[in-house]
């Protein structure tokens, strides 16, 4: 299986694009925001690592697809502010949405315009998006991409992850059980 990698230049929502195999309209696509803690360090506090693992398994099983890996650590807040939010969460018993609000950090400042443009540049106008995030779907549809949602449900690895998923559902309006 051939994997092509390209940079996705954008000062706020850039990253990298991995094209796996021969893609065509209606292929699987995962737009993933970097999470150092979950992706690389395998933290049990969130579902980021398990979501990325599951998405890659599904794409590889299918034999083709696209991973758009955006440098949007901490829902676009950056690694330092994310660490501040996590510290506040620990100290005050809050979820990260509440911690961000307390610290004056936007709950979610991510955009998906660069990702949508990249999909069109790849010749894709119709995709199956691996996501639970309605904001990603809405942004892509507003850009003209036809999106079918493929839910990406993982099992929480800890009670903290379970609380994080509840906060994503309640504050981020993610489609989660």
From TrEMBL:
Entry keyword Disulfide bond: no
Organism annotation: Nocardia aurea
Pfam families (alphabetical): GTP_cyclohydro2
Annotated protein name in UniProt: GTP cyclohydrolase II
Keywords, sorted A to Z: GTP-binding, Hydrolase, Metal-binding, Nucleotide-binding, Riboflavin biosynthesis, Zinc
Cofactor(s) needed by this chain: Zn(2+)
PANTHER family registered for this protein in UniProt: 3,4-DIHYDROXY-2-BUTANONE 4-PHOSPHATE SYNTHASE (PTHR21327:SF18), GTP CYCLOHYDROLASE II-RELATED (PTHR21327)
EC nos: 3.5.4.25
Domain GTP cyclohydrolase II: 17-147
Domain of life of the source: Bacteria
This protein's pathway: Cofactor biosynthesis; riboflavin biosynthesis; 5-amino-6-(D-ribitylamino)uracil from GTP: step 1/4
Catalytic activity: GTP + 4 H2O = 2,5-diamino-6-hydroxy-4-(5-phosphoribosylamino)-pyrimidine + formate + 2 phosphate + 3 H(+)
């Amino acid at each position: 299986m051939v994997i092509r990698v390209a940079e996705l230049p954008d000062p706020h929502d850039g990253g990298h694009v991995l094209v796996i195999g021969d893609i065509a309209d209606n292929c699987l696509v995962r737009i993933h925001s970097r999470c150092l803690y979950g992706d690389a360090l395998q933290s049990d506090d969130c579902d980021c690592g398990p979501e990325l693992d599951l998405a890659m398994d599904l794409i590889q099983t299918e034999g083709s697809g696209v991973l758009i890996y955006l440098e949007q650590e901490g829902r676009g807040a950056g690694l330092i502010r994310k660490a501040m939010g996590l510290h506040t969460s620990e100290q005050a018993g809050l979820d990260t949405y509440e911690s961000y609000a307390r610290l004056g950090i936007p709950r979610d400042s991510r955009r998906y315009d660069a990702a949508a443009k990249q999909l069109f540049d790849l010749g894709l106008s119709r995709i199956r998006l691996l996501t639970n995030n309605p904001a990603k779907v809405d942004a892509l549809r507003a850009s003209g991409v036809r999106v079918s949602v493929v839910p990406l449900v993982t099992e929480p690895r800890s009670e903290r992850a379970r609380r994080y998923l509840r906060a994503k559902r309640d504050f981020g309006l993610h489609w989660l059980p």
